[in-house]
Amino acid sequence: MEDTVRLIANAGVLIRFSGMGILVDALHTQPTKKFSTLDYALLRKIVTGREGFSDIGLMLVTHDHIDHNDNAVLLQFIERHQETVVLTPSLSGGEKIQRLGQKRQSFQASNIHVEAARLTHTGEKYKEVENYGFLLEAGGKTLLFLGDSMDDAEGIRQLIGGRHIDAAFLNFPLVTLARGKRIVREVIRPDKVFVFHLPFVQDDREGYLKATMRSVEREKDFPPCTLLYEENQVEELWMNVD
């Protein structure tokens, strides 16, 4: 099975990595003014484990803002998927549900090693929000997720710990703003960037898509970027070296 990413909505993705299905920030239900959320039909498929969602081994929640997670729906998912390892800032219970509450933690989900670290949420009014970054390692490959952190360069550096990042999943300001680009170039240095936390085309009232596309197109000496903004968009995780 190929290693792939499938966009759910906003910063929610289904990752196929080293034989495991992994959901990240995939269960959010409340509409917001600027971003998209998943429709009810897709939500039910995820919760009930149908059509590509039957083998989820790992569920990651970076933080509990409404455009990333809905704990009521997450609890429904947990009830039906007791085999899934769940890492979350706000729930605990049983062997499989691990509450993130320390600055740095390590976990093992089958053959995938997970490092979690608290990273400062971008925005002065959100700096006390528990936001976690995740680093996933298996088979000599490494994935990076930062949640809504963009300015915590030192925290990101410590999470990476000198590792080579094969693919980083980054919110669009990290590829459109100068301070974000600097962190990508100097701290993360990934082989490939997946850009998300973007609205679907029909929901893009602020022009985020066009601005991000322009920024990526004109950027020199920058890792290759793939924008995730189409419903059910599927991409291969790794750079094609052919």
Gross morphology: globular
Order of helices and strands: EEEHEHEEEEEEHEHHEHEE
| CATH superfamily (homologous) name | Ribonuclease Z/Hydroxyacylglutathione hydrolase-like
What's the total count of β strands? 14
For the record, the count of structural domains works out to 1
| Total count of helical runs of at least 4 residues | 6
**What's the overall average pLDDT, rounded?**
93
Most strands sheet: 7 strands, mixed
Strand portion: 25-35%
Give an overview of the whole structure:
The protein has 242 residues and is of the alpha/beta class. It has a single domain (4-230), classed as Ribonuclease Z/Hydroxyacylglutathione hydrolase-like (Metallo-beta-lactamase, Chain A, 4-Layer Sandwich), CATH 3.60.15.10. The protein has helices spanning 40-48, 71-80, 153-160, 173-176, 178-188, 208-218, and strands at 4-9, 12-17, 20-24, 56-60, 85-88, 97-99, 104-109, 112-118, 132-138, 141-145, 167-171, 192-196, 225-227, 234-236. α6 links the parallel β12 (192-196) and β13 (225-227). The longest helix has 11 residues, at 178-188. It is globular, with a radius of gyration of 17 Å. The two termini are 19 Å apart. The mean pLDDT is 93.
